[in-house]
Amino acid sequence: MIARGILRGGGVGALLAAAFSVLGVIPVCGYAALPLRAFAWTLGGYVGGRLAVQGGARSGGVAAGLGAGIIAGVVDGVVNVALAPVRFKLAGDMLTSLYLLPKPILDIFANMGVDLLALNTVGGSIFFSVLLCGVIWMFSGVLGALGGGVAQALAD
Q1: Residue 101: pLDDT above 70?
Q2: 156 CB-contact burial (10 Å; exposed 0-12 / middle 13-18 / buried 19+)
């Protein structure tokens, strides 16, 4: 029963998060896209936890929510990597966003011998999208587990 909740909740969260990622390509809507994506990961975890608890797994809501959140985050991350070239072409360049990175991160790139001007390409935008995917997977799992926990608490 937990597996069914994970897959269905992950599907719901993935569809919503992917739609919000596509919305985030539009420069004006980009600021609203991340909170909406976080809501989608949490909702996917809630749906997964709710289905698991209704299916008889009384203490499986958090686990199902975690799995559903991770699935939603993986799909959302893949969509973001696919949209990175489009986002780069619409923005014109990445230098502005690269120079907004914290100084320690810029120092890490400088110590590795990476020139920031070399990252001002479509490949650079894909590189940073892939780096962001790891953060998305962890964060979406946490939010999904939170949603699953809420579903489990409401069922008790």
Answers
A1: no
A2: exposed
